[in-house]
Amino acid sequence: MIRVDGVELAYGDVQVLNGINMQIEPGELVAIVGPNGAGKTTLLRTINGILKPDRGEVLLDTKRIRDTGSKEVSRKLATVPQDTHIGFSFCAEDVVEMGRTPHRSRLDWSDDGDPVTEALERTETTHLRERNVDDLSGGERQRILLARALAQEPKALLLDEPTASLDINHQVRVLSLVEELVKEGRAALAAIHDLDLAARYCDRLFLLHNGSIAARGTPESVLRDPMLAAAFETETAVTQNPVTGTPTVAAVTGRDDRSKHVHIAGGGEGAAVAVRSLWQDGYDVTVGPAPNGDVVTDLARELDIKTVTAPAFSKPDETTRRAAIDTAREADAVVITEGPGSKLVAGAVETTKTVETNLGSAGTEVARVDGGNTTAVRTEAALIKRVSTVVDV
């Protein structure tokens, strides 16, 4: 449907697109992801014919787009721009009506309102049809522009940051609608800045970095590709969203070199909280002993963290115990959780480098009776502060 062959484009001496190759088929929702300035909008503007590439070709239904008339292109390909400014004080329905222009001749302005009505209904904007677009919010204008694109009845959609002006509710609704359109046989290519949304709704991702495609493939493979961290200039952690079952990515701040090693002893929710918070703060984290199938071992696997595991519901054997103790002794600090296995390590390492915790499932304070006194860390913030004090001694 859409094919990009070796496209290159420069603005003066600045190379903006470099050897871009991609193909989007009907029934596919594909995302272009990448940092600001990577060339996502420029690529979309080249695909829809607004910009002419210096080298390479863009083909629409096997025909070069540069050899195709604008009306024919518009009947097949609709674009939803990032900029929601309309430029004229029309009512919303008139803006959507503009989507019918490619299907009319200069003398034929008969009313064919069914596609317009359907577009308003599918974008849930019927109640806005008589409103002046100047009076609409950015998110409402975004949905009106999507309705205009649907009114074109295209075979393919280009969407430039379609969720940028939307609240979380309408982000999901808009991408769910695009997903429906794709299932009906259309092709869709979208520049999406939210990696989690791209992973949730798209079949494939293209990672654009410095004008080149740095990675391509399924959301899972692209989000785990080392080039993602290079493109966004930050370390990333990829886990599975427990609700959607799709990959979710988080940028990691704090120490860049992971030169300080922290060992988490034990399993359970509290251990998982400790692993997540310290890993995100930039520490080299290890875990164990922890039971197979435990929440902390699952998290450690997602983060590719070294873990000493033991069979669930049984006491760790001597080999496992020794491996956990040896790993803990190599660490700059040891976090003792309330989970199973923690006591095996607690008595075998220097007390000066241990940090006792009492963390809940979300890192919030949990009451504990301990003779009326406890020095256990009970919040994520306190844990990070205490560990920092220990490792920097």
TrEMBL record:
Chain ranges of the ABC transporter domain: 2-235
Enzyme nomenclature, EC number: 7.6.2.8
CDD domains on file: ABC_Iron-Siderophores_B12_Hemin (cd03214)
Signal peptide: none
InterPro entries reported in the protein's UniProt record: AAA+_ATPase (IPR003593), ABC_transporter-like_ATP-bd (IPR003439), ABC_transporter-like_CS (IPR017871), P-loop_NTPase (IPR027417)
An example molecular function term from Gene Ontology annotations: ATP binding
Any matching Pfam family: ABC_tran
Enzyme kind, highest EC tier: translocase
Annotated keywords: ATP-binding, Nucleotide-binding, Translocase, Transport
Gene3D superfamilies the record matches: P-loop containing nucleotide triphosphate hydrolases
Catalytic reaction(s) noted: an R-cob(III)alamin(out) + ATP + H2O = an R-cob(III)alamin(in) + ADP + phosphate + H(+)
Domain of life where this protein originates: Archaea
Role of this protein: Required for corrinoid utilization. Probably part of the ABC transporter complex BtuCDF involved in cobalamin (vitamin B12) import. Probably responsible for energy coupling to the transport system.
Assembly and binders: The complex is composed of two ATP-binding proteins (BtuD), two transmembrane proteins (BtuC) and a solute-binding protein (BtuF).
Protein name per UniProt: Cobalamin import ATP-binding protein BtuD
Organism: Halovenus rubra
